[in-house]
Structures are given as C-alpha cells and as structure tokens.
Design brief:
- The structure holds 2 protein chains of 2 kinds.
- Chain A is mainly α.
- Chain A folds into 3 domains: 4-72, no CATH class; 77-203, no CATH class; 209-307.
- Chain A contains 12 helices and no strands.
- In chain A, helix 1 (4-16) packs across helix 4.
- The N and C termini of chain A lie far apart (80 Å).
- By secondary structure, chain B is an alpha+beta fold.
- Chain B has one domain (12-122): Winged helix-like DNA-binding domain superfamily/Winged helix DNA-binding domain (Arc Repressor Mutant, subunit A).
- Chain B is built from 5 helices and 3 strands, in the order αβααββαα.
- Chain B has a 3-stranded antiparallel β-sheet.
- In chain B, a hairpin with a 4-residue loop joins strand 2 and strand 3 (80-86).
- The two termini of chain B are 30 Å apart.
- The chains are: A mainly alpha, B alpha+beta.
- Chain A binds chain B through residues 27, 29-31, 33-34, 36-38, 41, 61-63, 67-68, 71-72, 74, 155-156, 158-161, and chain B through 20-21, 23-24, 36-38, 42, 52-55, 57-58, 61-63, 65-66, 68, 78-82, 93.
C-alpha cells in the first residue's frame, strides 16, 4: 500500500524523465503543486482524506505520462506538411524510378555486350539501385530547410503549438523546383563528371564531353543564367513571388535564359559526339519552347497586376 | 458490440474543435489578475468552461513561452505555486480576440437566424 503523495511523486517522476532537461525541474515543481492542489480539492469534495485510489484516479485523468510530456514539449518540426505529402511522395518516387530505369537500360546494354545477367543486375543494384536514393534524401533535406525557415518566420500557433501549413514558404519550389535547378546546373556545368559519378567506372563517359568552343564561350553564359534562375527560385521559395521586383526579376531571367539557350542551340556543336550533341540541342530547344510559354504566362500575369 | 454512432463521433470532434478555438481567449480573459493553474481551472469551471488539467497547464506554459503571459513563483497560503498574469502583449491579444469573438457571435447570430431562434432550436 502506497500513500497518495507517493503516487503523485512517482507519476511526476515518470513525466519528468520524458521532458527536456532544461525545463524538467521547473515543470516537475509546478506539476507537483498543481496535482497536490487537485488532490486536496478532491479530498475536500469527497469529505474524506486523500488516499491511494483518489490519487490514482487523479493522475489517470491527468493523462498518460507520455501524453502529458508531449503536451509540455515544444512542437516538433513538420518537415513535410500533410497537404504536400502527396507531391513529395510522387516527386521522390518518379525521381527514383527514372534513375532505376536509366540504370536498367545501362544494365541491359551490358548484358547484350556479354555480361552475365546476375552480375549486371547485382552491379545495377549496388550502383543505380541504391544510389538513386540520394534523390529522396535531397528532397527531404530541402523540405527540412524549408520547414526550418518557415518556423523562423512564423512561430508556433497560439492555440495548440502546432506547425501546420507552409507558413508562406513555397514548398513545391523549395523542395522540388530548387533541387531540380541545382541538379540541372551541376549536370550542365560538368556532364562528364556528373555521369562518371553515377555509372560504373568501366562505362565510357567520353560521350558527355563538351566541345572546347562551347565550354569556353556559351557554357559560362548558360551557367550564369541557370545559377540566376536557382537564386530567384530560392528567393521565391522563401519570400514568395508576390513582390513586383521579384516578379520582374523572374521575367528578366527567363528572357535572358531564352536568349542564352537559343544561342547554345544555334551557335554550333555543344558536345564532341554528334548524336549526343543532336539530342542535347533538341532537349535545349524544348527547354526554350517551355520557357517561352512560361514567359508568356508571366507577362500576362504582370499585365493583370499592373492594371 | 454495436458500432459507435457516427453522428455522435462527429459531434464530439466538432465540439472539441469549437472549444479549442475559444480556450485561449477564455484563459487570457481570466488572467488580468494573477492566478495559479489550479485556481484558474476552478474559476473557468465555475463559469461553465471546464478544461482538462492536462490541457490547461501545458497551455499556460506555451502562452508564457510566446510572451503572452508572465509568471512567478509565490508562497501564499500554502505550498509554492506558479502564478500567471497577462503580459502587455497578452493583454493586447486578449482585447483583439475579444473583438473578434464579438464579431463572430454577431455573424453567427445572423446566420443562425437570431439568438432566440437558435437557442430555441438547440433545446
């Protein structure tokens, strides 16, 4: 048989060990005073001295130590807001699937070249298979950075301390657009190096080599446009695209990007190997096409805002 | 075992959300003068706003962490207790929330067809 005081002290000790060290002693002291008051109140209402049963009922109604400690803890960081989890999962799965598909295509080529199927598949698994997981990792890191920024910009809500929503941070741009822009910039900066990182060492990567002329003249301009685009995306992700200055900066960058990409397409060979060069220029021409659509939308939107 | 009535479940949840929205205002309104957790709970309960201890006490600390309340330990008529009172920001928020609440009640009165009408329907 234990006394009511022991029940309360044991309960508080259970809660305290789940609390952050910094606030543990203070919360435990306050809980002790509150529960003691509560027990005294019950004893008065029941017109009998407090006993073990009364104390157990009090702590049982107060809540499980885990739940009580959770209520006292500061709200955790919501890395992926619930309304964005679908987009996050889709982006993560599509990114991994694309890499696996490319890796399997490489494995197929190797099988056709005489590599035994188990060897090609095991090589695919340890190279493309596992390595493809860098993409969800990058998305998660960007989401964590966006959530951290959101927390800094908007403290916990008053009512329940929760942090739902993106607090003005453009989550899709922060977690998908920005990583994609960074990866594309890295790829265009040094495609031979980039490809060398993701394919087995014995795969020839010379096809991803730029011509000297492109590397010296057009590539730096293209990289400046891509880095500028990534910087504006970061700005929009954090500050939003509401300000006129950011919107006009975006239009200027898209315009500049279209000019530079067109120069890259029509200005001569980009890659040493002709088939690769043709594919690369067609892809870049497609980018120009989509950038023109984007530019038209932006200009139309700006015209509406200016009215 | 009979399945739980979905209407009862939904009603419980919606009522909980309704209450959650006003708990902060109810707490702030009582802290123009210093109170400790237990006395605050009793005061709210006496006015028909019973709040679970496990909800109220952590809320007080959160409001304090947000700069809306100030607190100090005092020994008055019993063991040491932590007393909470509105800070300047808390007092301002309480005024703002009270105005919002008044607007909301007026709006809802209109939507529900006047106070006497909806009170009669609720009975």
């Amino acid at each position: 048989m234990v006394g009511p005081r022991e029940v309360i002290e044991s309960y508080i000790a259970d809660i305290a060990e789940r609390l952050p060290l910094k606030s543990r002693a203070d919360i435990a002291c306050e809980l002790h005073a509150l529960l003691t008051d509560g027990l005294r109140g019950r004893s008065k209402s029941a017109r009998r001295p407090a006993d073990e049963t009364m104390a157990r009922q009090l702590v049982s109604e107060f809540g499980r130590p885990d739940d009580v400690a959770a209520r006292y803890r500061p709200a955790g960081l919501t890395i992926v807001p619930p309304e964005q989890s679908g987009v996050f999962l889709t982006a993560a799965m599509v990114g991994v699937a694309v890499q696996w598909a490319i890796g399997l295509a490489v494995a197929l080529v190797r099988i056709q070249a005489g590599t035994p199927v188990p060897t090609a598949l095991s090589e695919w698994f340890v190279s493309w298979g596992i390595a493809a997981l860098w993409w969800p990792g990058l998305l998660l890191a960007c989401a964590a950075a966006a959530a951290w920024l959101a927390r800094r910009r908007s403290p916990d809500s008053v009512a329940d301390g929760s942090t739902t929503g993106s607090h003005g941070v453009n989550w899709t741009i922060a977690c998908i657009g920005l990583p994609l822009a960074v990866v594309c910039t890295l790829f265009y900066a040094a495609p031979d190096w980039f490809v060398g990182q993701v394919v087995p060492a014995d795969v020839d990567t010379r096809w991803a080599t730029y011509t000297e002329e492109f590397r010296a003249l057009r590539l730096p301009a293209l990289l400046v446009a891509m880095i500028g685009n990534a910087a504006v995306l970061a700005l929009i992700a954090i500050k939003g695209s509401g300000s006129r200055a950011v919107r006009r900066l975006g239009i200027g960058l898209v315009l500049g990007g279209i000019a530079i990409m067109t120069w890259c397409v029509v200005g001569g060979a980009m890659f040493v190997l002709e088939p690769v060069d043709t594919i690369a220029r067609v892809v870049l021409a497609l980018f120009v096409f989509f950038a023109l659509i984007d530019l038209a939308k932006r200009v139309a939107r700006e015209a509406i805002f200016s009215r | 075992m009979a399945p739980a009535d979905p209407i009862v479940n939904i009603r419980g949840k919606v009522e909980q959300e309704l209450r959650r929205g006003v708990v902060v205002l109810a707490v702030l309104s009582q802290l123009r003068t210093p109170q400790y957790g237990y006395s605050l709970r009793q005061a709210l309960s006496a006015q028909g706003m019973a709040i679970e201890e496990g909800t109220l006490y952590p809320l007080l600390r959160r409001l304090e962490a947000q700069g809306l309340l100030a607190s100090e330990w005092r020994i008055e008529d019993g063991p040491p207790r932590r007393y909470y009172v509105l800070s300047k920001a808390g007092a301002q928020l309480q005024r703002n929330l009270t105005a919002s609440w008044a607007n909301l009640v007026e709006t809802m009165d209109g939507i529900l067809g006047g106070r006497s009408s909806w009170l009669a329907r609720a009975k």
